[in-house]
């Protein structure tokens, strides 16, 4: 055995030891995390510890893999590891051992500064799973390099001995991270998030073998209003177009962005023709996509936000991923995120079923007492509706859990409410979480597409501390965390200022913990 191989073997065992320590810490915290009143029922979270961006999404040998940014030793952001879970249906997830630990000098620095195996992606090559990620150490030169790890089974990863991209092509850049790799006509391509001179950028690389990469130039750049650094870029074909999604930094409160356009591989240039926001809610960041074996383009994002009030509250866990969404280009040319059809299998007991319609008189309301996890679906007949507003209120019900909270709230459980309003005159929907509980406040609005003149369909997934509202099957989406301290929920719908006609309305409990521990 050569000395290099001996060196590599000892680094591999060091990595495995670090993974074992991480796994032990995650398991040790799981019991406490499971007791937290805000734990979700049907979203993917780490068993314990910190979670942020989804990473390495891939449909590999019949299983969906979701890796994620993870700090196993606390519910705060520390040196980053890659957590791991798998699913056969994008709905029921099982945890797998922590997949990557920061052990190389270019991955590990002072825990006070940012460091670790930061975000990246996965591809399949010759039957193996290959991960690409940014190795980051605050203050070192270079601060960010692109690293690779491979696996035969998709569980145990061997790191490539050196980074595959040793530093940014641009000494002046602001960030050089989050490699997203894909194959096009027999060549490998990678986009990396960066910024220069106040403009976010996606840098393009090309490779024949996944190990040697050559820089192709700036594939796309902010028009000057789209943020100064683009985190987590993802560039992929959709229909007969290409789509670029990015998580812009410092863009006037906008945290996610898509562009639809054309990709010229010969020039290494993506030309956007239109742009928009993927999700108008406050808790949607670092989205990433994968193509599955059915040809669907599946998107999952981090269902939280940097700076959120609930960070660092000592709950033994922080962070969750959104429900899986299938991307499509909608009738009006915008990007739609449809809930994947497998989510239908979550439905438990049906609480309401107005199959042949429901007519609410002006100011009439209906309400239901529910567990903290449910799905509501409604089709509104706009041609017969005179109401100025449909008000949907999700409030706390049942037992008041605030006694357990030092941060507590003086509101009674029923006063903790998230209010969603369809506003006919404005043709918009707003989500108001100003009174939702102990988390952040804010009102978030989405302008409805012109197609809403014909129909308005709402699908609402509530999971204890989250709300995902899909409008017209995901033509528009609002995702938000909410933090009511109550053991149950009450859903109320109300017609304001006129008659509201539903063609159909259905409501189900979602029961059972669908994320394995
Ligand atoms: N989070 C990762 C980075 C990425 C950022 C670090 C986005 O790679 O740019 O955890 O949330």
What percentage of residues falls in helices of 4 or more residues?
A: under 10%
- Derived structural class: mainly beta
Query: What fraction of the residues are assigned to beta strands by DSSP?
Result: over 45%
How many strands, what sense, and barrel or not for the largest sheet? 7 strands, antiparallel
Number of beta-strand segments: 34
Number of helices: 1
Distance between the termini: 41 Å
Describe the structure concisely.
Residues 342-508 form the Glycosyl hydrolase family 32 C-terminal domain. By secondary structure, this protein is mainly beta.
Q: In words, what does this structure look like?
A:
The protein has one helix at 3-35, and strands at residues 49-60, 63-71, 81-87, 93-100, 115-125, 128-137, 144-151, 158-159, 176-184, 187-196, 199-207, 214-221, 229-238, 241-249, 257-264, 269-276, 285-291, 297-302, 317-318, 325-329, 335-339, 350-354, 358-360, 365-370, 373-380, 389-400, 417-423, 428-435, 443-447, 456-463, 466-471, 476-481, 486-496, 500-509. By secondary structure, it is mainly beta. Strands 22, 23, 25, 30, 31, 32 and 34 form a seven-stranded antiparallel beta sheet that branches. The two termini are 41 Å apart. 2,5-dideoxy-2,5-imino-D-mannitol binds next to strand 1, strand 5, strand 9, strand 13 and strand 17. Its main location: cytoplasm. InterPro entries: ConA-like_dom_sf, GH32_Enzymes, Glyco_hydro_32, Glyco_hydro_32_C, Glyco_hydro_32_N, Glyco_hydro_beta-prop_sf, Suc6P_hydrolase. One of its GO terms (molecular function) is hydrolase activity.
């Amino acid at each position: 055995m050569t000395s290099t191989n001996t060196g590599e073997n000892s680094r591999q065992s060091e990595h495995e030891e670090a993974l074992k320590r991480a796994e032990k810490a995650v398991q040790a915290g799981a019991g406490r995390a499971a007791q937290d009143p805000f734990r979700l029922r049907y979203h993917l979270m780490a068993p314990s510890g910190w979670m942020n961006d989804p990473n390495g999404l891939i449909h590999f040998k019949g299983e969906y893999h979701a890796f994620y940014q993870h700090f196993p030793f606390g519910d705060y952001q520390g040196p980053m590891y890659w957590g791991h879970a798998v699913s056969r249906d994008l709905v029921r997830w099982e945890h797998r051992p922590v997949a990557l630990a920061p052990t190389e000098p270019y991955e590990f620095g002072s825990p006070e500064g940012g460091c670790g195996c930061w975000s990246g992606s996965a591809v399949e090559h010759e039957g193996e799973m290959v991960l690409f990620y940014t190795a980051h150490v605050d203050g070192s030169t270079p601060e960010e390099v692109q690293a690779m790890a491979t696996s035969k089974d998709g569980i145990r990863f061997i790191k490539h001995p050196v980074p595959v991209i040793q530093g940014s092509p641009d000494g002046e850049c602001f960030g050089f991270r989050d490699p997203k790799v894909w194959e096009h006509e027999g060549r490998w391509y990678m986009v990396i998030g960066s910024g220069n001179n106040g403009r976010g950028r996606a840098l393009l690389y090309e490779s024949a073998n996944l190990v040697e990469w050559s820089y192709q130039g700036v594939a796309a750049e902010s028009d000057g209003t789209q943020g100064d650094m683009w985190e987590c870029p993802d560039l992929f074909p959709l229909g007969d177009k290409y789509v670029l999604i990015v998580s812009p930094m410092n863009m006037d409160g906008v945290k996610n962005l898509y562009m639809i356009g054309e990709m010229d591989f010969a020039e290494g240039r993506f030309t956007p023709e239109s742009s928009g926001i993927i999700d108008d809610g406050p808790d949607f960041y670092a989205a990433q996509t994968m193509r599955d074996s059915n040809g669907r383009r599946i998107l999952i994002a981090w269902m939280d936000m940097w700076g959120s009030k609930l960070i660092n509250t000592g709950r033994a866990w922080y962070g969750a991923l959104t429900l899986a969404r299938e991307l499509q280009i909608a009738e009006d040319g915008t990007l739609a995120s449809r809930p994947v059809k497998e989510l239908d299998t979550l439905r438990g007991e049906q609480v309401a079923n107005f199959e042949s319609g429901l007519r609410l008189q002006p100011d009439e309301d209906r309400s239901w007492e529910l567990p903290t996890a449910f799905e509501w679906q409604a089709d509104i007949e706009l041609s017969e509706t005179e109401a100025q507003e449909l008000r949907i209120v999700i409030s706390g019900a049942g037992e008041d859990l605030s006694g357990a909270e030092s941060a507590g709230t003086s509101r009674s459980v029923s006063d903790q409410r998230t209010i969603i309003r369809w506003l006919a005159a404005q043709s918009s929907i707003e989500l108001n979480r100003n009174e939702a509980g102990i988390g952040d406040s804010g009102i978030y609005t989405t302008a409805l597409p012109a197609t809403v003149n014909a129909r308005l369909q709402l699908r609402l997934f509530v999971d204890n501390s989250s709300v995902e509202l899909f409008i017209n099957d995901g033509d528009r989406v609002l995702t938000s965390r909410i933090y009511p301290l109550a053991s149950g929920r009450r859903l109320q719908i109300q017609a304001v200022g006129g008659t509201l006609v539903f063609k159909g309305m259905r409501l189900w409990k979602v029961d059972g913990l669908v994320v394995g521990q």
